[in-house]
Structure formats: C-alpha cells, structure tokens
Amino acid sequence: MSAHSLDTNDLVSLRDDIRSRKTSACATVGAYLARIESQNPTLNAFRETFADDARASASRVDQAIAAGDPVGPLAGVPIAIKDNIVTRLGRTSCSSRILENYRSPFDATVIERLTTAGAILIGKTNMDEFAMGSSCETCAFGAVRNPWDTSRVPGGSSGGSAAAVAANLCAAALGSDTGGSIRQPASLCGIVGLKPTFGRVSRYGLVAFGSSLDQIGPLTHSVRDSALLYQCMAGDDHHDSTCAPHPVEDVVTTLDETPRTFRVGLPLQYRKGNSSAVDAAVTRAVEHFRTMGAEIVDVDLPLTDVGISTYYVIAPAEACSNLARFDGIRYGHRTASPSAQDLFDLYAQSRAEGFGPEVQRRIMLGTYVLSAGYYDAYYRRALQIRRLIKREFDAAFALCDVILGPTSPTAAFSLGGVTDPLSMYMCDVYTVNTNIAGICGISLPAGFDESGAARLPVGIQLQAQAFAEPLLFKIARGYERAQGGREQIAG
After folding, report:
1. Is residue 7 pLDDT above 60, yes or no?
2. Quick check: 339 pLDDT over 90?
3. Looking at the predicted structure, is the pLDDT value of residue 80 above 70?
4. 82 with 160: CB under 8 angstroms?
C-alpha cells in the first residue's frame, strides 16, 4: 500500500481510508514521521516524537484490520499532544527548564481515552512555557514558527499543536485553553480549535495553570474531526472532581443537522480595534449565516474590555499556587550553585533558573494579588466581576443561540514583533471571557489577510452556552460547508 496523501484529507477521511485498506496505518505513520523530520527543524512544532512506539501501534492496527477485528473510531490516526498533558511515553516538560526531563508514571485521562479509541500518539508539541503566552515565544526550547510564514508566530500557548496540524505533521493535536490558548493559535494557523465547556473534558493529567479556567480540547483540520475527538474525550471522570456528570451526546452522527432557524448574536464590543481583514471575515460570516437561515441580532457584552484585567488577576493567582510545587525538592530542576546557604536560597535559585521571565512575572503577580491587604482589592473583586461576566453571557444567550465575533484582533504578527506584555495580553481580548464564564467556544478558518507580503489566515469565533456543544458543532459545521473548501498549506 502506498502512503496516504497527507495534504488532501482530514482525520475522518484518513481513518476511513485506513479501515478500508486504501492505505495502512504503518504507511501513514511513516509519511508523517518523514514530514516531521523534514519540516520540524524549521517550525520547531514538536518537542519530541515517539517514532518506535508509533510504528508499533500502527502495526497492531493494521494487523487487527487485516484480521477483521473491531477497531476504535480513531484507529490508526496519528495525533500530537501538547507538552503539558502527561504521557508515559516521552517527557512532559511544559516547555520549561524546570521540568526539562520529567517523565510521568501515568497517562492523562484524555490520553487513555484516545488510545482506547485507537489513536496513535506521534509526539509532544512545543508550547509557551507552562501555557503562559500568546505567541509560543516563551518556550524554553525555542520559539515555534507559523507554517504559513515562518517569520510569524503561530499563536499560543498551544502554538506547537496548531503549527503541527496546519503543516500536516499530524492528523490532529490536543491543546489546552486557559484564556484562548487553543482558539487563538487555531485562528492564526488557519485551522479549527475547540474550547469545550469547563468540566466537559477531564483535566486529570493536565499540568495545572489556572484550575478554574483550564480545559483540554482538539486542534483539527475540520469541524467533523473536532466533533469526533471531542466525543472520544468528553465525559465524567472520577479522577477529576470538576468533571460534570452529564452524559455525552452523540455529536458526530447529528453533525450535519444544521438547525433550520437559529439566532446569531453580534456583540457591539467586538467591532473595534480589529484589522480590516478580521472585520471583513466577520462580515462574510454574517452573510453565510444569513444564507443558512439565521437571524442576526445585536447583543451587548459591556464587560468585554475588563475581561483581560479580570483574567490577569484570577489566572496568576491560581498559577502561583499551582506552580509552588516546582521547587527543586519535590519536582523540577534543582540548582547546582554552591552559593545556596539555606533552604530558602535553594528554592529561590532553583526557581529563578528553572522558570522563564513570563512565568516568573505571573507568579509574582499572583502572589501580590493574594497577599494580605490586597486580596479584597484585587482577587475578591475579580471573582465578583467574573460572576457579572457570566450573567452578561446568560443575558446574551437569552437573545441568541451562538455569539459570533473575531477569534483574534489580527492575523499572526512577526516573531519578536510584540515585546510589551500588556500588548501581548490583549491578543486574547475576545477569548478570555469564554474561560471566565465557563462556556464553550470554537475558532473556525475564515479567510486571509492579504495586506502584507505573506498571505495569513484569520479566524472567527462562535461561543455557546455551557454544555451546548451539540448545537455549537452543528452551526459551526453549517458555516464550514457554506464557506466551501478550506485552503491548506501545499507540500
């Protein structure tokens, strides 16, 4: 059997071709590994690959199919994993020096569920250190590059996963989204990125950043692929007390049942500060939805602009607590400096050497907002605003089924092009409130910015109420079909 064409098919098509023996899992894995070997030195999307294990898993899939044995819904499909989701294979470093050589003794729940479904783990992808960043430039092992233009960022923090999917180095990938870290790189790389409802997908085995905000989700070539991965991963987990006990609906077989009538909300606050290409993409999306029979309604989300400041109180507060365990004693890098005079010095030097500048910045910010005398002024106030943001979304969803807007205000910017931390944080202005409110959101490819030398993807975002993924997928799939074929990177 010949290697499958990796440039023309999505995950579901690839899965079907492996099942029907048009190609083999072994040929597919071999083709992806060759592509990674060729392109990763430039893109730096992968931290490491699991070549031997992937080939062995592929061989078992091919043998099962040849014998007529039942196989899972993801059988033979190579998937990449963001480097903050623990796997027994390889290392889980969170792209940080402090965990550079950490090997997990167990698999995350999502890994168990994907491998049970037949997926093949092909490697771990680079990311912003501890998922703290919007450009994938804070990775301790070098910046990740956007495959559409390697002088540009892929977005963050799941930039390695997004770049790997966009460059066809894997069939799909997992990321994590604390304030937009799946959706924003999906937009900048021209792919689909889903942030599920908080509690819909188990976080057991995800290295915690912001425990009330984190959520694992897929980055894929299509809405259909996203729905399949979501269905394989979602559901209650006794290892994660924040997981919702709701049964998982069959979102795959009902995917093409676009509602005959539905309402799309357009927030007034999402119409300023965007590039002309992004505004044009939203305008085109509105017309697509109208042709699908949607009613377009104006909604008001006046707290949009305070979402960033609220997020950058809550998330660092949770991060400083979660990252306290990485002290060089229980976990992580321990300084070899002979100047450490006592335990405090050992902690301080180990963490200063192990954590990068952005992680240190957020730990200090979190420590400050939780400190005596400032807790009420900052952290408690942020929690109060969080409740108001959730109420604001509830009121908006009383008027509409989904909320439409940009994913990111602009297309991908140049590597090193944004050096001010506050300007970098504003890249997530349209995504952080989804996490703050605990609702679901999906980023969809929506055209290109052709104003510069390079042709760069832009995306739109759809948000829906908590646990409304079935409706979100149907409307997203309808938009995807109305928009027509998606352009991919040649190669």
Report:
1. no
2. no
3. yes
4. yes
Q: How far is it, in rounded angstroms, from Cα 180 to Cα 409?
A: 12
387-391 long-range Cβ contacts below 8 angstroms, 24+ apart: 388/303, 389/303, 389/307, 389/310, 389/433, 389/436, 389/437, 390/436, 390/437, 390/438
CATH architecture of 1-304+384-491: Alpha-Beta Complex (3.90)
The closest of 482, 325, 467, 459 to 404, measured between CA atoms, is: 459
pLDDT score for 454: 87
DSSP labels, 314-366: HHHHHHHHHGGG-SSSSSS-----TT--SHHHHHHHHHHHHS-HHHHHHHHHH
Query: How far apart are the C-alpha atoms of 23 and 60, rounded to whole Å?
Result: 15
Looking at the chain, the domain(s) classified CATH 3.90.1300.10 span 1-304+384-491
Q: Is the pLDDT of residue 143 over 90?
A: yes
Q: Does pTM top 0.85 for this prediction?
A: yes
Q: Label residue 337 by pLDDT band (50, 70, 90).
A: confident
Q: How confident is the model at residue 9 (pLDDT cuts 50, 70, 90)?
A: low
The neighbouring-strand residues paired with 158 are none
Length of the chain: 491
Residue 111's φ and ψ, nearest 5 degrees, are: -70, -45
Q: What is the 3-state secondary structure (H, E, C) of 13-56?
A: HHHHHHHCCCCCHHHHHHHHHHHHHHHHHHHCCEEEECHHHHHH
SS3 call for 298: strand
The residue annotated as part of the active site, out of 157, 158, 161, 408, is: 157
205: left (phi over 0), alpha (psi -120 to 50) or beta: left
Strand ranges across the sheet with 456-464:
46-49, 120-125, 78-82, 172-176, 216-220, 192-195, 440-449, 456-464, 402-406, 262-267, 294-299
Active site residue 181: yes
- Residue from 57, 181, 350, 408 carrying the catalytic annotation: 181
Q: Which of these, 435, 311, 431, lies nearest to 382 by C-alpha position?
A: 311
330 falls in which pLDDT band (50, 70, 90)?
confident
Q: What pLDDT is attached to residue 338?
A: 85
Catalytic residue, chosen from 13, 24, 57, 82, is: 82
Task: Give the chain's mean pLDDT.
Answer: 95
Q: Would you say 207 and 130 are in contact if contact means Cβ atoms under 8 Å apart?
A: yes
- Is pLDDT at 253 greater than 90 in this prediction? yes
- The pLDDT assigned to 6 comes to 52
- Strand (E) positions, 229-293? 262-267
Q: Are 135 and 424 in contact (CB under 8 A)?
A: yes
The β-bridge partners of 445 are 459
Distance CA 110, CA 176 (A): 12
Check if the beta carbon of residue 71 is closer than 8 Å to that of residue 64: yes
* Residue 230 pLDDT > 90: yes
Q: Which residue type, as a one-letter code, is found at position 342?
A: D
